[in-house]
């Protein structure tokens, strides 16, 4: 009976051993998971090339033909703008063409028939005057030679003859000018004025065409900024169009992981929004983000800091469903 009692009072040494072994196991497991090399995930984001649709002239939005999310093709009308000032300038430019054309026609056609006839009659009249003055001088010269009249009288008649000859020459010049029309320099100036006026019309017409905004490339409308009836200034964006065929992924890669990337290198990454399938991407751009980017010290003592690089890669093949803003994971 006494022996049984001693056995019951003996301390159980197995329980502490089990607890100690359990603690050792937990510490070992924790150390394993804490210090083993872990796979890091680099997260990127899909991006796409966009172009802005804008107007060259201040105008009012009269009609929007598309909305955000619509697929458009090159040449499609996106919006119709209203610019009354352009219409007014076109009327002014066309009137300037008409005026310049009239000047050109006048220079090309020369004087009117009535002006030519009048100039010829003046010339004929001046020729008659020269003939009469010539005869008068001849008679006066004969009388002077006979000693009937003085030399002064003869000189007066001679002066009248010279004046009549000068008048005849002037009348002939006026007649020739009327027949020949404007000078070549005047004609060239008139032609240049017409070209200038027509150029102004073409300029206004180009501005008028800009009131019809069309898509320059195929894409998807991502943003529409003004509403119908709003005024927009010169160059103000009306909408953005994304070129969905030109999509890429941007990764921000820490410097110690940069050895896994190089230009034209193929990397594999997954798109969580599209499932677990891995897709291949080709690196085409690498550049450091500069001193303003996030830096991370490699050691707490801080021997050196690692910069962050921007790495861009394009899909090798088109990925159905990939859209701008989706996350892309690279391990």
From TrEMBL:
UniProt-listed Pfam families: HH_YBHG
InterPro entries referenced in this protein's UniProt entry, alphabetically: HH_YbhG-like (IPR059052)
Domain YbhG-like alpha-helical hairpin: 87-203
Organism, as annotated: Pseudoprevotella muciniphila
Protein's name according to its UniProt entry: Biotin/lipoyl-binding protein
Entry's transmembrane regions: 12-35
Keyword Transit peptide: no
Keyword Transmembrane: yes
Superkingdom of the source species: Bacteria
Keyword terms: Membrane, Transmembrane, Transmembrane helix
């Amino acid at each position: 009976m006494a022996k049984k009692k001693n056995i019951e009072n003996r301390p159980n040494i197995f329980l502490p051993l089990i607890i100690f072994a359990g603690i050792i196991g937990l510490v070992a497991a924790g150390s394993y998971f804490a210090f083993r090399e872990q796979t890091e995930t680099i997260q990127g984001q899909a991006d796409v090339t966009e172009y802005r649709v804008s107007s060259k002239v201040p105008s009012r939005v009269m009609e929007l033909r598309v909305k955000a999310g619509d697929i458009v093709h090159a040449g499609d009308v996106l919006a119709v703008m209203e610019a009354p000032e352009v219409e007014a300038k076109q009327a002014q430019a066309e009137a300037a063409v008409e005026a310049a054309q009239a000047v050109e026609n006048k220079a090309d056609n020369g004087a009117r028939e009535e002006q030519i006839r009048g100039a010829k009659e003046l010339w004929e009249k001046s020729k008659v005057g020269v003939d009469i003055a010539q005869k008068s001088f001849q008679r006066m010269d004969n009388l002077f030679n006979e000693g009937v009249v003085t030399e002064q009288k003869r000189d007066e008649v001679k002066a009248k003859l010279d004046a009549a000859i000068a008048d005849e020459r002037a009348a002939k010049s006026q007649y020739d000018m009327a027949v020949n029309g404007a000078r070549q320099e005047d004609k060239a100036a008139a032609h240049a004025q017409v070209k200038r006026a027509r150029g102004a019309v073409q300029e206004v017409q180009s501005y008028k065409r800009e009131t019809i905004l069309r898509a320059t490339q195929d894409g998807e409308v991502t943003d529409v900024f003004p509403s119908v009836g709003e005024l927009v200034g010169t160059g103000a964006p009306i909408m953005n169009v994304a070129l969905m065929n030109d999509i890429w992924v941007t990764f921000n890669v820490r410097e110690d992981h940069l050895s896994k990337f190089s230009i034209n290198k193929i990397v594999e990454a997954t798109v969580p929004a599209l499932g677990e399938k891995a897709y291949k991407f080709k690196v085409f751009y690498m550049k450091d983000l500069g001193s303003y980017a996030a830096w991370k010290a490699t050691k707490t003592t801080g021997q050196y800091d690692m910069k962050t690089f921007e790495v861009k890669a394009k899909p090798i093949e088109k990925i159905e469903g990939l859209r701008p803003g989706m996350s892309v994971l690279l391990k």
